Amino acid sequence: MNILVIGAGPAGLMFASQIKKLNPQWHIRIIEKNNQEESVGWGVVLPGRAPHHPANPLSYLLDHETLDAQYLETFKLTHHNDSAMKSTGVTLCGAERKSMIKALRELCQSLDINIEYEQPVLEEAQLAADQYDLVVVSNGISHTTHFYREALKPKVDFGKNRYMWYGTPQLFNEMNLIFKAHSSGVFVAHSYKYSSKMSTFVVECSEQTYQKSGLDDMTPEQAEQFIAGVFSQELDAQPVIAQAGLKWRQFMTLSHEKAYDGNVVLLGDALQSGHFSIGHGTTMAVVGAQLLVKSVHEHSQNVEVALQDFNQRVMPVMKLFSQHAEISRLWFESAEDNMHLTTPEIAQAFAQRRASLPALPEALEAALKYALKR
């Protein structure tokens, strides 16, 4: 089989490496629009402890210990300078996104999968001319500006809050959620360590707070200093660092009713994105990739049947993921309405925000059990 994977992020890399292991004779080509050194973001949250959890991409790396991942089992919520602590109930893994992607790319290359960098997105005519049996679009939310067929045009919605993905040398040993009242409004930080030296520090606020604080007129350096000042107590006077090219923005939710059209299939954020507050983005990429591996491997003689099978299995999980993420996003967009609550009360409200939905981890576990069953 001749397969093209568009995008060398977690979803595409996981699919390419795992399908190649099952079918060493297949030809797989990966193209990536960025150069080899470009990788967006700081740390990501993964499930479980490598190498034991099948939804943690580090579990597929022989040298996963070299990534300096950090394991977290405690959740800490801070409000009114008071904190509430509880167990997360599961082991969570904080890992540097750049190191993880680099290791997954090296895994693909070790399997003789070629990755071509700084490649433009191919037109539909070029895809047909190269006679690919399967085209996997896994280039994240960027494909909103370049989808391949009308049937795969995404639905796009934007949240009301502004957010920024910072890194900081301050180490947060728990999964932290920090509510901070400021003269310009309420700021919320989501933080956790992802290495022995760095933590992720995602900050969000309402559009009104964003404008009133003057963040819209600040340089990146001025914004860093301002946010470090807002959270100076929690940061212990450590700085926050913005990655070049990242800006304060509204969260974009991208979704589809169908995962494929013809021989083109969507994977990862190109299929469905979800608010960072539930921490399942990379997990969904891995689960989707493993489901696609299963379908393509078992129906390799008929791509249409393979993608029908994948669509039938992945879309219910994606829709549940979307529901969980949407409820969580809306809860944070109304955070200012909860500032009068006591710390235990706001912690309870946070814990119960998705209680009306079926448990997402159970759905993911069931999908993985099916996908990995041989």
TrEMBL record:
This is Tryptophan hydroxylase. Transmembrane segments: none annotated. It comes from the Bacteria.
